[in-house]
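User:
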Amino acid sequence: MTSPLRLPKLVVETREIAAVDDLLSYADADSPLAWLRRGEGIVGIGQVGGFETGGAGDAVPGGALPGASQPSPADWWRATCADAEIDDPVGLHGTGLVAFGALVFDRRSAASSRLIIPQAVIGRRGGRTWLTRIRSSVGSLTDPPAQPVPYGPYWSATLGPGALDPEGYQAAVRAGLDAIAAGEVGKVVLARDLVGTVPAGSDLRRLVRALSTGYLDTWTFAVDGLIGASPETLVTVSGGEVTARVLAGTFPRGADADDDAAASFRLSHSGKDLDEHQYAVQSVLDALAPHVSSVRADDEPFALELPNLWHLATDVAGEIADHASALDLVAALHPTAAVAGTPTDAALEVIRRLEPFDRRRYAGPVGWVDANGDGEWAIALRCAQIGAEPARRFAEYSDTIPVVAHAGAGIVAGSDPETELLETRVKFRPIVDALA
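Assistant: Predicted structure:
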């Protein structure tokens, strides 16, 4: 029996086209779909279909609840691709049938996880550019729009403290340290929030472009109003290989070259940060183990340089042994210790107890998947949700749209509440600067 959630058969055609200077100019101004890094990536136009789960406390990234009647996003995507008619002579990573996705952090979230299949995709990789058109076999034969649209005027957001202000955040960190001392968790990641408004009718591509040009070595993403620039790859799947980049342990950049070198050195030799990082790496290795024939990880983390901070980073790679798709591995990996803590279930309970808000899609998986099960997924960090419900401190006017942003820090034994607060301020900087 056909699932009521299954789309009619999709017809997909990919063709190589002349070079496009600005992929983002093709995206929808009010609801951009984009996945960009150093000028390459994919941009979606319109929507031909999709999948949504959750929104009532039962969203599960990549996997269905026990006894749930809905298929998981991974299973729904497999069924959709099996029915599709795909003509893709280009054959690059990101061509053919593609869905963009933004998934919730916590299965108990009131937000929903979504996969979105666009009507058209403009992409560029390795100096080659392509156009993919996607339509329903029972729908209109009208070609979807694939023309650049001039950017709208510049705009700025209004932001202020959310449910957890700086003093409240330090109190939450102290409570997290109490949970660690009691043996409840070894590490817990605690976040705080900023809420505000964006002028109605704003060209949201402006925000995407500010992030993509300011933070070249991050994944800049825009999916269903979730816009950000994440330095952390959750998982990349390509041709049977899986890679991930684990980030945990943070230090602000120095004021000058000598101070900056000293900051990198201190981070690389910080026992607290090295312990936090090891928790995160081990959680990824443990999650991948059932799905890979072999897995490799750096012996020691390296210091990753970003415009505003240093991160401890470890690259992980392996060979997939069980035909797992990117969405299957997203379900296996999320949430990592880098964004939740360890042990995972206990850390989630501490987060639910100490954070007075719903993270929604912050720190959840965001990315794309293709018909082969390949794809690129990051952790939704340095981001804001445009159109988010939690901006309650601001009156809702017809000429504004609510926005909420989050930033967090990993708490382990020895963490200092004031230092962790400073870390969240540094992590807020990319999205706050871009919104302003």
